[in-house]
Structure to design on (764 residues):
């Protein structure tokens, strides 16, 4: 039986993140219809703000898909791939493998470029397999391992070969500068509940003119009616009915996105680095070490830390959960081996991680974690 | 530029409906993760309540799709149709035609059974085309015209021929008894923002064992990874990660669904009839007449009224909108010809329609509408 969870939880997970206060307030706005003029005005604002967030040109088509980030991933393959297309998927974690699965379901011949777990994709491996490839797909920040893939270099290779580039920006866009136009990305998506700290249920997307041209050259309609690019444009640009968008979530995302742009991407990136460094400084004496070996391969927004030898992963996380602190462990091969500490949106703040340090001091019977954490945060106050 | 719409609007549309107060309150519950035990307990409650709402057996698989009703429609075709299947679609309005479009996109050979606008599908027309048909699809209540299609009779025919039956229950389930098991429906879906008065962004679905058997007999995976029945069951029944569900919307839907079941489907049905009759009584002297000729073909939850000759449809609806009252006109061929007054969830109450009567008295310079409306509601008080 469901019990009322009115308790506030400290979410240190790689998503969902705590909802931004401005988004929480916006969620309570009175209901309006998806075809009401106020909602079209709201959507136009959201589109402009998404262009700023993704670093696109002023005319690039942006929109919110009425679903989570996985639907954002799927819409790229559904609209831009047809049976028999050659698609190169960079797969060095769960989300890269999910991309390969989806591309295959939409009829692609999938070429996989892999890397050992905890390592970034090598652009040379991509370049070596580009012959005849129509689309390259890569996860910018691989949430399952805390690895940052070299999107700008991969984009250069895709451009040289005339291939489209789809980028999963779930852990990056909205938390630090994303340069879609400058890099040459054709389709990018994220989830509302990640770097923007909005409620889950929306996938903000950006679609380049090259991608739209590919869409218009399709031989057959995309099976995915719900996210058909033309249907989306009918609603977002021509204001004709397609499906009922979740207006309450639009209210909240609009507020969270504005808050993120008001703060600025460079400030947010600095916040992530600052808190991330303090966490590592605080935990290092206990034996926590970076899981990703090469510093340039480390994803700032999902801090993957290898656990000390003999550390009781499940037991400690369970005890933390009893204190209403959620920490996420590894997935698959890294289960029991690592923690993945989220540093997206409202999670990348001193207060929630100070709560973790306090609880760990008590649970592990060690001292000095909170003091080390606070000292590492100096001179920036909480 | 988006202006703050904190004004309360009177939504008399066929969706979205005003959010139920218990759902509005639940929307503000503190954030939790989609893998947290409290959310799995909440989901289990929702599944049980959906079984009650749809009138299924105790073991029928129910779930919420993380998208709107159209995604509910699409998931049925995506999972239950393969290339070359014979699908018979009952299409007597916009949503029936949408079904035909989707079925074709997933490779079906589509046979259309149509009826003139404003008339229900004739079961004999369905029976005449059943040879070799693997699936029948029908919209229970056609929102675009206010027509109720004879689902029980169509279900009997589908059963006789061993075909699956997909039913769009968007304007029916949650507002009056729906008998999925008794009738023999295999896949049913609705949208959260219709009869349940929850926020938009979720599609409650129910899937029969026959439908699951058909799914398991597929020769190829469904393209639609996001709503793959097996992926949904992984999350909803085995509690393994599939995609991030919109937990805030789950909170709200859970509260709205409980409120609906607490009230009871027969009470809700009576409420619809009562308010609908009062609206017709009040407006009849102005020349508003039922658009759907045969009383048994009239959908109770979307009252389609033919406008009086010379009535300034667009002008009056614009003037109502300036008073924050939203009324929906016709779609396509019925544009300018009809109004479609929603009677779903919280819209099927005297108060919002009294606001309409008051405004019309003033705008049209007529008297007695509100008094007639109130008299017709006697002896049940608002």
């Amino acid at each position: 039986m469901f019990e009322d969870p009115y308790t506030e939880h400290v979410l240190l997970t790689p998503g969902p993140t705590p909802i931004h206060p401005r988004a929480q307030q916006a969620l309570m706005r009175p209901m309006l219809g998806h075809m009401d003029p106020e909602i079209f005005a709201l959507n136009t604002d959201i589109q402009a703000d998404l262009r700023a967030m993704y670093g696109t040109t002023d005319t690039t088509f942006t929109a919110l898909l009425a679903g989570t980030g996985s639907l954002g991933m799927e819409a790229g393959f559904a609209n831009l791939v047809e049976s028999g297309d050659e698609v190169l998927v960079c797969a060095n974690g769960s989300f890269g493998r999910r991309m390969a699965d989806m591309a295959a379901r939409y009829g692609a011949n999938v070429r996989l470029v892999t890397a050992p777990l905890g390592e970034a994709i090598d652009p040379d491996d991509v370049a070596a397999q580009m012959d005849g490839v129509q689309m390259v797909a890569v996860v910018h920040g691989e949430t399952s391992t805390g690895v940052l893939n070299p999107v700008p270099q991969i984009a250069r290779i895709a451009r040289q070969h005339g291939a489209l580039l789809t980028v999963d920006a779930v852990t990056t866009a909205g938390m630090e500068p994303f340069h879609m136009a400058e890099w040459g990305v054709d389709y990018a998506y994220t989830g509302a509940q990640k770097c923007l700290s909005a409620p889950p249920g929306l996938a903000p997307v950006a679609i380049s003119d090259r991608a739209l041209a590919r869409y218009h050259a399709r031989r057959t309609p995309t099976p995915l009616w719900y996210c058909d690019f033309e249907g989306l444009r009918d609603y977002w640009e021509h204001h004709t009915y397609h499906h009922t968008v979740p207006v309450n979530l639009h209210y909240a995302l609009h507020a969270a996105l504005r808050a993120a742009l008001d703060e600025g991407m460079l400030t947010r990136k600095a916040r992530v680095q600052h808190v991330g460094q303090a966490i590592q400084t605080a935990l290092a004496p206990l034996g926590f070490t970076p899981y990703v070996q090469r510093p340039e391969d480390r994803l700032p927004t999902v801090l993957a830390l290898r656990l000390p030898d003999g550390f009781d992963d499940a037991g400690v996380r369970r005890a933390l959960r009893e204190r209403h602190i959620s920490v996420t462990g590894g997935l698959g091969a890294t289960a029991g081996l690592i923690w993945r500490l989220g540093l997206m949106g409202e999670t990348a703040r001193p207060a929630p991680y100070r709560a973790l340090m306090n609880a760990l001091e008590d649970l592990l019977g060690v001292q000095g974690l909170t003091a080390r954490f606070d000292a590492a945060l100096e001179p920036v106050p909480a």
Summary: Chain B is about 40% helix and 15% strand. Chain B touches chain A through 67 residues (CB under 8 Å). Residues 276 and 303 of chain B are 7 Å apart (CA to CA). The longest strand of chain B covers residues 86-91.
